[in-house]
Amino acid sequence: MNLYFLEFRDPLFGIIIFFIIIFVITALSYWFNKLKKREDYKHLDNFLKQFHEVPSQNELEVLVSKGCLSEKSWLLLANSFTKSGNYEKSIEIYSQLLKVADKTNYRDTLFLLGKTFYMAGFLERAKQTFLEILKNNPRTPQALSYLLLVYEQMKNYTAALDVLEPLSELKKDISVEEAYLNALIILNDVKISSEDKAQKLLEIYKKTNQMTHMIFEYLFRVNPKIAWENLDISKSALIVDILWQCDKKDLNFDIIMQNSFLKELYSAKKYIKEANGSFVFELDLLINLNPNTKATLGFEYVCDNCNQTYPFAFHRCSNCHAIEKMRVELLIVKDYHRDFSEESNSFL
Amino acid sequence: MKKVTLFCDGSSLGNPGAGGYGAILRFGTVEREISGAREHTTNNQMELLAVIEGLKALKEPCEVTIVSDSSYVVKGINEWLGGWIKKDFKNIKNPELWREYIYVSKAHKIGAVWVRGHDGHPENERCDILAKQEALKMKEAIK
Ligand SMILES: [Zn+2]
């Protein structure tokens, strides 16, 4: 008995008890956290399950009015569906919100719906939605801009031009859009001969100094002689891809010999030997490369407005919708056509 | 190599008759539409021309997945082309177009995927509209 009290009073015994208490607390909090986490996941699973299927109009009405999920959250959810390309779901959410939600955000939601219709390729429905916004608020620049894009995709360029008028009243600079749409009208008109088209496109080019790539792409294809005669050589770099692909028989050497960039370009192409090198790295490399090396120029296109890169030329950036912002960048690529032989290259 | 999807469709009114083609080149989230027409052509020729014109627009070597509702084009590219080359296109229709395809496809890695036409693929629906619009425009122009 004495021994027991002695040990009970021993400081070592106190330390042991202290550690036991700490261990019990740690173990309990560990299990508690684990349990809580499991509960949280369960809750999250239930929450996410709601979005596998968009709720019906009635459910949505209840959910919005009860405030379980605010209108703003529904908009965010719809936006994330749009971003992941699930347009069907975002269209459903916007349509339901328009029916049940507060009318203060009505116009904004209608705009988002129209934009999603446009992105999903439902052009007619997108058109109707933007026209609906403009019926009550004719000076909504975003709706006007998107309506223009819709008409452009529908190839109704005259209607697109009509949208420019209210946009210009909103102090928007419409000169590039105007030149672009006018050029598209000419390019798509089957009733005009290619010679007349070339002349009309040149008129636009001379008047606006815009749409160089688009216009010269056509000119070099149908009438290289006229293209060379009207090209502002200082703009050669803007259409370097078109110039590179120009047939040797179509070249205008009188013009080429007057310009160092063009001399370097066609020396790199091995059409002439008028340059020993170039400040442009890719041209310098090709000029000085062993003629048997299978290398050539490739091109990459960058939008100067949003920095999006494309492997093909574009006139309106499909990412930011800017026009005349395309920059051509040079690449050194393998020349697959050097000793061209027919063989299948299917990877399937 | 950039991965590009090329959706394409071709259409001939009368087959043969005035025809059009439509193609969408998609790289990531960005795309470009291409379309054009020919005065007198067949459906198969326009289907193939859509592929050729789409590939021509690519200015650097890419890995291209061609999506078409034409089994002529898809099987031609994936299965038959090797055999046609071996027999030098003897008794094969549209040899010139196929030769052009071989030339423009040379720089790329290519695979073709068949989809059922008018089966809710928005890009193919769009290509179909582009091709038909072009064909109609051409028909009007040559009236
Ligand atoms: Zn851009």
What does this structure look like?
The complex is a heterodimer of chains A (348) and B (143). Chain A is mostly helical and 348 residues long. Chain A has 3 domains: 118 residues, Serine Threonine Protein Phosphatase 5, Tetratricopeptide repeat; 56 residues, no CATH class; 98 residues, no CATH class. In chain A, 61% of the residues lie in helices and 6% in strands. Chain A contains 17 helices and 3 strands. In chain A, strands 2-1-3 form a 3-stranded antiparallel sheet. Chain A is flat, with a radius of gyration of 33 Å. Chain A starts with a helix and ends in a 14-residue tail after the last strand. The relative contact order of chain A is 0.04. With 143 residues, chain B is an alpha/beta fold. Chain B has a single domain, classed as 2-Layer Sandwich (Nucleotidyltransferase, domain 5), CATH 3.30.420.10. Chain B is 43% helix and 33% strand. Chain B is built from 4 helices and 5 strands; from the N terminus they run βββαβααβα. In chain B, strands 3-2-1-4-5 form a 5-stranded mixed sheet. In chain B, α1 runs parallel beside α3. Chain B is globular and about 40 Å long. The model of chain B has no long low-confidence stretch (mean pLDDT 92). At the A-B interface, β1 and β3 of A face β3, α2, α3, β5 and α4 of B. The structure holds zinc ion (ZN). Zinc ion binds next to loops of chain A.
Short recap of the structure:
The complex is a heterodimer of chains A (348) and B (143). Chain A is mostly helical.
Number of strands of chain A: 3
Helix and strand sequence of chain B: EEEHEHHEH
The CATH topology of chain B, please? Nucleotidyltransferase, domain 5
User: CATH homologous superfamily of chain B - what is it?
Assistant: Ribonuclease H-like superfamily/Ribonuclease H
